[in-house]
Design brief:
Length: 301
């Protein structure tokens, strides 16, 4: 499928390589006003099948809307929009034009999280979740930490539970000079399960972890750890004299380095065969982001 890449910043440089490696897509050019040999969108928009959008989040809506209006399938960097109303409007336009509108929620193809989902309800009721996403990301300008990296963990919740996420509290602990949160905590409830997400753009060390505490076990995802997924069962613990002991059920290191390849392939399959999984995750995640925005507004009043 003939395609173009729109936006050639940090993420645009990364995704270009994967597009060129894909057997499903043929990259005709890159649309970016900073690129001397960049292509003009208006000159090619009627001759392409799809586009990869990597501009800043605030520019997603006009770019995606124009592409969909011309019948172009869209792969958009996350988050899709800053408002749920815009998300619904773009989804409706995509449906009207018979186009795929696909958001790059890359954790939905993580083999470790796919494994976690298989075990999620095997150890009784899920009691609590603790999620952490840290990295050094001061190059993000004009965006909150919840939009840039926290959104990944929201998409993990959407993937695991496939239900709406209620944001109970937003606690921003570090804010830059322009008022954008750089570190903070999100307290949530999904499918009756409460938990916390730590989001941090000021960390010295990158971290991606999800811990799921169940009545009879513990599930741990650690994308950068020695084992990317661990599943432990509780045994014993009938009384205070017999505390529970862990029994390791699964300890595995999956390859998390090819997720973007898998995501681009999934985009191609969705164009060719259809599918609603990415759309559902996008809608759930975008609604949660809007709740976070309202939570920040309440805290600032």
């Amino acid at each position: 499928m003939d395609c173009i890449l729109i936006g050639y910043g940090y993420w645009g440089h990364i995704i270009e390589r994967y597009i060129r490696q894909s057997e499903k897509f043929r990259l005709l050019g890159i649309c970016d006003h900073h690129k001397e040999d960049g292509v003009d969108l208006q000159a090619v928009i009627d001759s392409i099948a799809c586009a990869f959008v990597c501009v800043s989040t605030r520019n997603h809506v006009p770019v995606v809307e124009e592409l969909l209006a011309h019948g172009v399938h869209v792969f958009c960097e996350k988050p899709l929009c800053r408002s749920f109303a815009d998300t619904e409007r773009l989804m409706s336009l995509a449906e009207e034009k018979n186009c795929v509108l696909f958001t790059d929620y890359i954790y939905m193809v993580s083999p470790s999280l796919q494994c976690m989902k298989e075990y999620l309800h095997r150890f009784g009721k899920v009691l609590y979740m603790d999620m952490v996403i840290r990295q050094f990301g001061r190059f993000y300008k004009g965006e909150h930490v919840y939009e840039t990296v926290g959104v990944h963990m929201l998409s993990v919740l959407a993937y695991l539970f496939e239900q709406s996420i209620d944001i109970i509290k937003v606690d921003s602990v570090a804010v830059d000079g322009e008022g954008y949160a750089q570190a903070g905590f999100l307290y949530f409830e999904v499918a009756g399960v409460r938990g916390r997400i730590e989001c941090n753009l000021l960390a010295e060390r990158k971290e991606r972890t999800v811990r799921v505490l169940c009545e009879q076990g513990l599930l741990v995802f650690d994308m950068l750890g020695e084992h990317t997924i661990q599943v432990m069962a509780y045994e014993g613990g009938k009384d205070t004299e017999n505390p529970p002991e862990y029994r390791m059920v699964l300890q595995e290191r999956f390859d998390e380095g090819n997720n973007l390849v898998q995501m681009i392939d999934l985009f191609a399959r969705t164009i060719e065969e259809g599918g609603e999984d990415n759309r559902k995750i996008t809608l759930i995640t975008q609604r949660a982001l809007e709740e976070i925005g309202r939570g920040r507004d309440r805290d600032e009043m």
